[in-house]
Design goal:
With about 300 residues, the protein is mainly beta. The protein is about 10% helix and about 45% strand.
């Protein structure tokens, strides 16, 4: 069904852009960034810190509002997508690079409007439904990645998924799967600055390139602004600055906003709130998307 495929494209596009780690299943988050009681102007060094055997659960709650215009007229739809992933640190090198085993445990989606639907991989029978074809290979099939303390992804291993990637039931090839997971993990462990940063600094986090199946090549140039540092230097508040482009889909970048709370002591993101607006031409339709992603971990 073309419209369902369009929904999955929009969902996976946003998830690949907005997957940032964060804390606790019942975390309350809003677009208003946290405020530190006291701050410092001193610089701090941001580095991921890994310990073999550590395990935590990553949660992502995404709300996507799409206004689609095509031959059938105008269609407005709101979709919600919730993801639960298990992260386990299998090994850590003397230099601090970690081999992380990642297992997607749950995908739940719901939509209103003309194409109303509700799917939850935790509900018996839902995984066998036609709408889950193409993403079922992601569930309960671990993949591995090596990530440095600076947030660089140096290796992605999806070999355990190869035997379960059925060409008849999935629209993805193994190369597309590996590429998508690699880009997703780049966002999960965001690139960190080479040197210590202080409030007001903006650092370049490089460019993310993602091939979105059926749409084209997406390019996201990322920077992060340091909004504030707590007085005890244990937490840092950052603002994501992203510039999106996709020539094949005539993408119109409406801007990225939000905040990321980083724990310097733990060496990880605690939680994040990311919002984006963008328009694109895809599958014969003009689609304007407003999306919000809330993310956290329970460690």
């Amino acid at each position: 069904m073309k419209d369902m495929k369009l929904l999955f494209v929009a969902l996976m596009l946003f998830v690949c852009l907005g997957s940032l780690t964060a804390e606790e299943v019942t975390v309350e988050m809003s677009e208003t960034a946290p405020v530190f009681a006291e701050t410092t102007k001193d610089a701090v060094l941001l580095r991921n810190k890994f310990t073999k055997g550590d395990e935590y659960i990553f949660y992502s709650s995404n709300e996507i509002d799409m206004d689609m215009t095509g031959a059938e007229g105008n269609i407005n739809m709101t979709m919600i997508m919730d993801i639960r992933m298990n992260y386990t640190i299998d090994a850590v090198t003397p230099a601090g690079t970690a081999t992380t085993r990642i297992t997607m445990e749950r995908i739940a989606m719901s939509a209103d409007g003309m194409y109303a639907m509700s799917l939850d991989s935790d509900i018996p029978g839902d995984r066998d439904r036609e709408e889950f074809k193409g993403v079922e290979v992601l569930l309960d099939n671990p993949f591995f990645m090596d990530v440095t303390p600076e947030g660089n992804i140096v290796n992605v291993d999806v070999s355990m998924m190869r035997d379960k990637l059925d060409a008849e039931s999935s629209s993805m090839t193994i190369d597309e799967l590996e590429s998508s997971l690699k880009e997703m993990t780049k966002n999960t462990y965001m690139a960190l600055p080479e040197k210590p940063v202080k409030a007001g600094d903006i650092y370049d986090a490089g460019t993310i390139e993602q091939e979105v199946q059926g749409v084209g090549a997406l390019t996201v140039s990322m920077k992060y602004e340091v909004l504030a540092i707590s007085k005890d230097k244990t937490q840092v508040l950052l603002k994501p600055i992203g510039v999106l482009s996709m020539e094949e889909a005539n993408l119109e970048d409406g801007g990225m906003d939000g905040w990321i709370l980083y724990d310097v002591t733990k060496g990880q993101i605690l939680k994040s709130y990311i919002s984006m607006k963008f328009g694109m031409d895809v599958m014969g339709m003009s689609v304007w998307t407003v999306a919000v992603s809330k993310n956290w971990t329970n460690n």
